[in-house]
DNA sequence: AATTCCAGCAACCGCTTTTGT
DNA sequence: TACAAAAGCGGTTGCTGGAAT
């Protein structure tokens, strides 16, 4: 028979998350860390499926998330990475600190696609639209979106000259340059090495000392502030009082 | 002012991959 | 090695708010 659903559909709530549900989830994860997602709803007192909890956490509640539109640099980086990786949003997101695959995917579909089309560039092949039909030497990344014939090595070997051909604006960006000129980084993209930055949240503990590196991740405290600003409940409502003293101290030292 | 249209985004669904036994 | 369970991923859907009529 088929797989069992990730959760029994009966009694499982769907649709937008309420502030109360967010609070429960945050409270639980801050207290216990990310453990078995399937068990989270039960343990956290949520009538949601584990999958939904994971999504909500990773896409919206994680304190290391950046909010707001992608910057020019980030956008350019997404374009370049997409040219190499295709629709592998999670891989792309792994190179943009504080951004999620869902966010990048949405941004791609709503903004970047149109932008590229306007510029006369095919968002799928990253080729100029008028010479799209040419089979071309640039096969290295054009088919990333197709049947993924591309081997991972292709992306690496051609990385340097691709850089100039994938619509990059000359002066765009330190972020992009630093990544695209860094052969080892590109290699890591293809070799599935762990992300450079987001790893600090893999264990979902608030201990994010490692987060404040040169990529300017928002700090834990900044995001607490954001959470408090953007959602209409206070820190008590979040159950942050469950944090231990160290965690609380860390939060207090921000301001 | 009311209605329609559309863009943006959060969330869901189903498939694939990874992990554990 | 085979199988099942869990996690992860990418495509798609549907709701919401703002713009246009």
Automatic annotation (TrEMBL):
Residues 123-175 are annotated as: Disordered. InterPro entries: Homeodomain-like_sf, Myb_dom, Myb_TF_plants, SANT/Myb. Coiled coil: none annotated. Pfam families: Myb_DNA-binding. Residues 157-174 have a biased composition (Low complexity). It is found in: Nucleus. Residues 9-61, 62-112 form the Myb-like domain. Residues 9-61, 62-116 form the HTH myb-type domain. Keywords: DNA-binding, Nucleus, Repeat. SMART domains: SANT. PROSITE patterns: HTH_MYB (PS51294), MYB_LIKE (PS50090). Residues 142-156 have a biased composition (Polar residues). Residues 129-141 have a biased composition (Basic and acidic residues). This is Protein ODORANT1-like. The lineage of its organism: Eukaryota, Viridiplantae, Streptophyta, Embryophyta, Tracheophyta.
